């Protein structure tokens, strides 16, 4: 019995000793100073805002200059520009999928922007428009306004003023810029006889042909016919619209655009260089071609010049003009950052950078 008591006393002593030792260790761990560390603060990665657009060449260079200045000034947000040769297809397919890979897109189609806004696929940008109230041209805001909501912000204005022509080609062949459709056809015949392609098409990119159609449409029926066709108030089989198609068809048959089999594959940007070199004499294109030619060293009024599309019927003279608008998808990957970038695009700082950048391009 006494032996059992001794065993029990020994066991209790060991348990108490274990508790004391554990307490000491615990106290030691609690009170002992922690080793000093020199950990570097975690760097927060900037949010990357993906911008889809179709600008390339000189226009793309000018835009990238603006992007670079934004990225230098903003460390929390960085813009990444992705040029899309098939911009419309990319935007529509990604929006339809419900998970776009872009945060912002720059579109030249206000009717499409309103359509996407009506479907609920775009963010309401009215707060940004209101912030710059009176500073943005209203006639560029109206096309993207749907029931008082603005689904796009204009960041660029452009025009399609007429036919750009090579001054040297005309002088060397004793030709005057055509003022009427008949004179245009006569000039085409002379140039063809000299082995010079009269007009460039840019047909491989399709949209340059629609620009020519609009130019002829305005000369046939004036702004009224153009607006009625846009609003579906006249049909594509309207006598005046059919007249437009016949005029273009006659120019093609006459060979004004060269060999149709070759012309159909002409990329629009490549025709700018051909115009400057005199390989082609004339090119109906928008005002952006002016910067492109100057960036290649050609001087306006000396190497190239501009004329309105030749007169066809006795109607008021007009040109097509428009812009490029910024949109933000409703479910943009980085919506908050995208709205900040969209606000910057809408403001005066971006416009000043673009103007300054284009001026720099022309001086280099």
Structural class: alpha/beta
- The low-pLDDT segments are 1-34, 359-364
Helix coverage percent of residues? Answer: 40-55%
Order of helices and strands: HEHEHEHHHEEEEHHEHHHHEHEEHH
Mean pLDDT: 88
The Cα radius of gyration reads 33 Å
Strand neighbour order, sheet with most strands: 2-1-3-11-6
The number of helical runs is 15
Count of extended strands: 11
**Biggest β-sheet description:** 5 strands, mixed
Distance, first to last CA? 109 Å
The amount of beta strand, in percent, is: 15-25%
Summarize the topology:
Elements (H helix, E strand, L loop, with lengths): L1 H30 L15 E7 L3 H17 L3 E7 L3 H11 L6 E4 L2 H9 L7 H6 L6 H4 L3 E2 L2 E2 L2 E8 L1 E5 H6 L8 H13 L3 E3 L7 H24 L8 H16 L5 H4 L4 H10 L2 E6 L2 H8 L8 E4 L12 E8 L7 H12 L1 H16 L1
Helix pairs in contact: 2-15, 9-10
What does this structure look like?
- There is one protein chain.
- The protein is an alpha/beta fold.
- Helices cover 51% and strands 15% of the residues.
- It is built from 15 helices and eleven strands.
- It has helices at 2-31, 57-73, 87-97, 110-118, 126-131, 138-141, 167-172, 181-193, 207-230, 239-254, 260-263, 268-277, 288-295, 335-346, 348-363; strands at residues 47-53, 77-83, 104-107, 145-146, 149-150, 153-160, 162-166, 197-199, 280-285, 304-307, 320-327.
- The chain has a five-stranded mixed β-sheet. A four-stranded mixed β-sheet has the order 8-9-7-10. Strands 4-5 form a two-stranded antiparallel ribbon.
- α2 crosses α15 and α9 packs antiparallel against α10.
- Residues 1-34 and 359-364 have low confidence and may be disordered.
